[in-house]
Amino acid sequence: MPDVNHSALRAAQSKAVIARFLGDAGMWLQANQQMKQAVSMPWYRRPQ
User: Fold this and answer.
1) Which long-range contacts (CB under 8 A, 24 or more apart) does 33-37 make?
2) Which class for 31: exposed (0-12), middle (13-18), buried (19 or more C-beta within 10 A)?
3) pLDDT grade, residue 43 (50/70/90)?
4) Cα–Cα distance between 35 and 37 in angstroms, integer?
5) In 3D, which of 47, 28, 26 has the Cα closest to residue 36?
6) pLDDT tens digits for 16-29?
């Protein structure tokens, strides 16, 4: 199970909402990367 940094995730989500409101794609992409880091992405598939 991945380790989730909830405070970092909440901050990144807030940043994404602000970026969407402002129409700032670069800021949104940065927030998206921060969200992925907060939830310990990438998750790799197990071999089948």
Assistant:
1) 34/8, 35/9, 37/8, 37/12
2) buried
3) low
4) 5
5) 28
6) 999 999 999 999 99
